[in-house]
Amino acid sequence: MTAVSLTPAGPFSLAAGVRFLEDFTPACYSGTAHEVLRLAFPADDGHSTVAAAVRQEETADGAAGTVRAEFTVHPGVPDGDLDGSPADPASAGAGPVSTESGSWPDEAVRAQLARILSLDVDGSGFPALAADPVVAGLMAEFPGLRPVCFHSPYEAAVWAVIGHRIRMTQAAAIKARLAERYGRAVQVAGRTLHAFPTPPVLRAITRIPGLTEVKIERLHALAEAADAGELDAARLRATPVDDALTALRTLPGIGPFSAELILIRGAGHPDVFPHHEPRLHAAIATAYGLDETACGDIGRLAGIADGWRPYRSWIGLLLRARAERIGRHAS
């Protein structure tokens, strides 16, 4: 097991992130906001699996405490003919990778953890956006909340395909079953978690109850794209936004909405205004006291969002979190 530290630049609350995950259907997360955050996910190398326990230190002055993560990297499960049967138990139970043997390095895992928690972004300038009264209200309502991203663009893309035209709860159940049946089972701080299958494993699965053959073919294509580096987070974020979105839309089953999801919540890009997310548009209109017709005026909404640079993705998350909270209370 390896231990690493992440020092937040700007406001950050791990507890707020855990509370967000508990309400975020794709995460299927169950935990307690004031204890450890347990994670299990395919590493960015596309073959290994990471098991991590994340905690944040408390500080007396209310500043963002250091985030500490303990993790283990497990080797990839050998490719096989998965015709609907679970992965070989002996392979799934293989021991952790030794980082001394040239396997996926600790620093790469640290970088992926930082990206998942949006700690790879300097948030020291974020409080200055409170000059906007709407943003100030969001910061007060969700103190220290930063986007908690999908573990990778690969997982975000898979979610987009699974969830297309079905209920989110149904999609979440299918994704959870895939993890339990084909993903690696790991122990994290006293609990057993199942990571989502790595791209080579997903590519070999031929039958997934609840998904059409077309969706399965699209999942295979996404696994191949991940193996080819087309879903590399660093590359997507280094590419101009419009170009990155255009490239993502060439993937089977990925339309404009899904491409934005992958870039923002998969690659963790901090400064994108989504042009294809009606719920966010409605949340902006409501927050800024605009009439209903403004929801369709993307240019006007994008102009408002320009005032949130370079954290447009972050403010968008806070607006969605508020809208979801209001919706839960209303129901």
From TrEMBL:
Keyword Oxidoreductase set for record: no
Domain of life of the organism encoding this protein: Bacteria
Keyword DNA damage part of the UniProt annotation: yes
Renumbered residue ranges of the record's region Disordered: 73-103
InterPro entries: Alkylbase_DNA_Glycosylase/TA, HhH-GPD_domain
Record field: compositional bias (Low complexity): 83-96
UniProt catalytic activity: Hydrolysis of alkylated DNA, releasing 3-methyladenine, 3-methylguanine, 7-methylguanine and 7-methyladenine
EC number: 3.2.2.21
Enzyme class: hydrolase
Ranges for domain HhH-GPD: 162-324
Transmembrane segments: none
Record keywords, A-Z: DNA damage, DNA repair
Protein name per the record: DNA-3-methyladenine glycosylase II
Species: Streptomyces niphimycinicus
Lineage, uppermost ranks: Bacteria, Bacillati, Actinomycetota, Actinomycetes, Kitasatosporales
